[in-house]
Specification:
Number of helices: 11
CATH class of the largest domain: Alpha Beta
Largest sheet: 5 strands, mixed
Strand order of the largest sheet: 4-3-5-12-6
Number of strands: 12
Order of helices and strands: HHHEEHEHEHEEEHEHEHEHEEH
Strand content: 15-25%
Radius of gyration: 24 Å
Distance between the termini: 55 Å
């Protein structure tokens, strides 16, 4: 195949088609007619010798070949878009840009709280719009509507750039008046009542079924390996709430150590290492290829990384 004979607009068509999963939606996104988009899909199928999108009961489903192509084409288009933009410098001291960041309150109260102090000194006119995971979809980040996502993720689309910010161990938080505060071991842990806290990924969450242990996350997965199960009485998605509930209701909260240490000086709580092994978790930063070369975005990512390194133990 002679690349000079390939209409590069077709790559734009394919990128949008794979994001939208619909000829009609893709046509609307590119402000072209549906017949023009259908013709573009036909030409793409001829070009790649593959149907690319197949109509199923779930709508237009990408083929294996299309899934392989998606991150490659997204990366190529991202570099092209960046290269044809006028070269601009980013001056944090004068910029009044707003950065939208999807984050859980774990990252918000540990990493981003520290970041705000740095921004106040170096970029006093910048604004951070912190959005919860339930407010955002992968699609929003992929399209650059959200600058980045900072959270714990089981999986991320191949088209995303990502970086591990830090790894964090787990700690147990209990009230200083808890009956087992002087003898906090595995038996005490299993005898006690617990508050569960977690929220990962994107989109609106669903309710928790306490009987589905395999879906409860890292802590309960490790207990299952020991043939044990904890008695969870409260499910929450907010770490601050979990800490307060543990303090006031004599429940045990098992949560990332950096979140637990927020209240390490509070005489009303005690922080212990878990009485069994729990693998550390990774806090990650993820962003779209569309923003990878943006000067302001590059600056913010570096600043986040610098702040993270400063608050490592």
């Amino acid at each position: 195949m002679n690349i000079s004979k390939v209409d590069l607009n077709l790559l734009v068509y394919l990128d949008v088609l794979l994001r939208e999963g619909s000829v009609t939606k893709a046509a609307n996104q590119l402000s072209i007619t549906q017949p023009a988009m259908s013709n573009g899909l036909k030409r793409l199928r001829d070009l790649f010798k593959d149907p690319l999108l197949v109509r199923t009961s779930d709508g237009m489903t990408p083929t294996k070949r299309a899934i392989e192509l998606q991150p490659i084409i997204r990366d190529v288009l991202g570099k092209l878009e960046s290269s044809i933009q006028p070269e601009t410098e980013f001056d944090p001291a004068t910029s009044n840009r707003t950065f939208r960041i999807m984050t859980s309150d774990y990252a918000e109260s540990t990493l981003l709280l520290a970041l705000l102090g740095t921004l106040a000194d170096e970029a006093p006119n910048l604004t951070l719009d912190l959005i919860t995971p339930s407010d955002v979809t992968f699609h929003d980040v992929e399209q650059g509507k959200v600058d980045m996502a900072i959270n714990r993720f089981d999986e991320l689309p191949l088209s995303f750039h990502q970086k591990v910010i830090w790894y964090d161990a787990f700690s147990c938080v209990i009230s200083s008046s808890h009956p087992d505060v002087d003898n906090f071991n595995l038996d005490a842990y299993l005898r006690g009542h617990h508050v569960w806290v977690s929220k990962t990924g994107f989109g609106v969450g669903v309710g928790i079924d306490p009987t589905e242990v395999q879906k409860l996350g890292w802590v309960d997965a490790e207990l299952t390996k020991l043939g044990k199960q904890r008695d969870i009485r409260v499910f929450t998605r907010h770490y601050h709430a979990a800490l307060q509930i543990a303090k006031r209701q004599n429940l045990i909260a098992t949560l990332p150590t950096k979140a637990a240490k927020i209240f390490k000086d509070d005489p009303g709580i005690c922080v212990f290492e878990p009485p069994f092994d729990i693998p550390p978790i990774a806090l990650k930063m993820a962003w779209s290829a569309l923003l990878h070369h943006d000067a302001g975005h590059v600056w913010l990512r570096r600043k986040i990384n610098d702040v993270a390194q400063q608050i490592q133990p």
